[in-house]
Amino acid sequence: MRLCSKCFNGWQIASALHAAAPRSKESLVRSQSSRPRPAAPESDLTPPEEIRARRIRLFVFLGVIAACALGVAIYFAGPPIGGAIKAWQSRRLARQAFALIDQKKWNEANAKARDAYLLRPTEPQAWRAIARLASRRGQGTAVLEWWKKVDEEHRLTIEDRRDYAACALAAGELVVAAPQVDLLLSQKGGPAPLDLLLAAQLAARRQNGVLALDYTERATTDPRAKPNELLAGAVLVLSMTKPNSPPYSKAWESIVKLARDPANPASLDALVFLAREQSRAPSRFPGEETPLSRDVRAAPQPETTMGPLEVADALEKHPDARPSHQLLALGLRAQHDPALASQYVADAVDRFRSGDDETIAALAAWLNSVARADKTLEVLPLDRALRGRDLFLQHVNALAALERWNEVKEILNSERFPLEPVFQHMYLAVARTRLGETTAATGEWQRALEAANTPEKLLAFADYAEQNHVNEVADRAYSEAIRLAPKNRAGYAGRLRVALASDHTTQAQTIAGEIVKIWPDDAAARNQDDYLRLLLGASGSAAEAAERQAQILVDKEPWNWSARATLGLARLRLGRNADALAVFHKVRATGSEPPGALAVRAAILAVNGYTEGARGDAHNLGAEHLLPEERVLIAPLLQ
Predict the structure, then answer these.
(1) Checking phi first, is residue 549 left (phi over 0); if not, alpha (psi -120 to 50) or beta?
(2) Is residue 346 part of a domain?
């Protein structure tokens, strides 16, 4: 049967719809069961041990990557972190050192400061600790280099500047001290009494007595002044004024007042000063003039001075007195009554011979100072002396005082005490010299020089050689100190001093010129260089330049006799005799002038016709040490 086209099309559509309709559940199950099943997951087939091993390998791999990353991080970040930790530890040790310094526990403070530096040598706080410790203990001029390092890092505090200025003044480094003092004087709120005292010391070193006294007066009248500052101010006034002048007497009275008050923190130091400086006591005080005082020395009023016995009593009874103070009191009693000196020595020996090492060292030093070296050996035999450096050196000093040089040589050669080689050999050098062993002594000086491997040791060695008049050795030691520390002013000052003492004027001028090159702003150094050049015959343009420089210095410091000597000598070399005489027209000699300056003045007086006065000055200079060229200036006046 044939279908029409429309019916056929409808049948096709119905068939298609039937094919697309959902199948029954059974048909679906049958169709699914007839399809092939997929393979089971791999994890279902892998043994658990293998899965665990894979996980472990993954963890190890990730751990290695993490360790490498951590190692790289430590490599780059470790040094900064380690440096920061060391810096913190160094600063902590430095703070501990500062606290110990304030307590005057020097050995403990030294250990802390040293550890702080060794832990981090670039830490400014460690530098400060070393510098402050050395400053408070007065350990030489090398400390200036430490303060300069701190200053370059801009880490100086007000207290640091005070220590820095004090060290520079002690070393004669006025150019270094001046800017520190200026900053202290200009600080907000005004300078403290200690700052004014530093300014007074600087003015005194510049020979400006008027300004120095003004600063001292301001410091000692300041309500904030501490007892030790009052004492320091009074001592400074004594050094700048003449005995029996009103300022001198007033300063002495201030020291006595401090000494008489045991509760005053400065009383013990004041008593020690009075005990050691009894010969400087003023004989008469302002307002005391009586008919008696015009003819004989009037006794000072009790309230303004202390006699030796009163000082001795006060020292013995002072609550803070140590054996050294009590020994000082016994020394005063012995000086006051020489007939009983032996008894006082015996009392001291009986009283202190059973003391500890510190007491025995003080007793031995005192016995040596009163020329009783035999008693020193009695209380300090060699076996006891070997217990400490101070004890050992006092024993050796006693042998030397008794001129038992063979024993000194034997002890030092035996090396029974671990004395530093530089000191061992320099003491041996003196012993061998006294024994007439010249060649051996030269060898000991050389071995001592070789053992002095630091600027500090070299300066100590050079000073010892200079004291023993071995100037050639001293000059070599100072030169070596300069090589190790090119800007160590003490080395240059020592070389200049040795050259002048040896009458080597040309060498002295060469050294002075080197000093000027390194410290061009030091007016005193420039003046000395010009003066030595003029002594050696400089004239013409060189003399004119020296005259200009000297005139500037005289205008600034009219009390400066060294500057006047240079100015007068320059004009003398230029043939302007009358102008040279005008340099000394309105100044009077006080007895503290440099002998060379007085020799120049005598020569100028002579060429201007004042022969009688010039001869008197020349003869007065006969016992003074003058350079050969200075003696040539006054030679015609001595005939």
Answers:
(1) alpha
(2) no
**Predicted model pTM:** 0.69
Instruction: Quote the domain boundaries for residue 542.
Output: 516-639
Contacts of 189 (CB under 8 A, 6+ apart): none
Which amino acid makes up residue 499? Answer: A
Q: Which residues contact 411 (CB under 8 A, 6 or more apart)?
A: 382, 395, 396, 399, 417
Distance, CA of 278 to chain centre: 30
Query: How many CA atoms lie less than 13 Å away from 102 in the CB half-sphere?
Result: 7
Nearest 5°: the CA angle 581, 586, 588 is 100
573's tokens:
């070399």
299: number of Cβ within 10 Å: 13
C-beta separation of 95 from 116 below 8 A: no
What span, in angstroms and rounded, lies between the C-alpha atoms of 94 and 111?
A: 10
Instruction: Give CA–CA dist 535/529, Å, rounded.
Output: 10
Structural domain total, the chain: 1
Read off the pLDDT of residues 320-360 as tens digits, 9 standing for 90 and up: 989 889 899 988 888 888 888 888 889 889 988 888 888 99
Residue 304 lies in a domain: no
Q: What percent of the chain has pLDDT above 70?
A: 87
In a domain, 499, yes or no: no
Instruction: Give the type of residue at 42.
Output: E
Q: How far apart are CA 203 and CA 199, in angstroms?
A: 6
**Given pLDDT bands bounded at 50, 70 and 90, which one contains residue 581?**
very high
Q: How far apart are CA 417 and CA 408, in angstroms?
A: 13
In a domain, 527, yes or no: yes
pLDDT digits (tens, 9 = 90+) for 117-126: 888 888 888 8
CATH number at residue 529: 1.25.40
Torsions phi, psi for 173 (to 5 deg): -90, 75
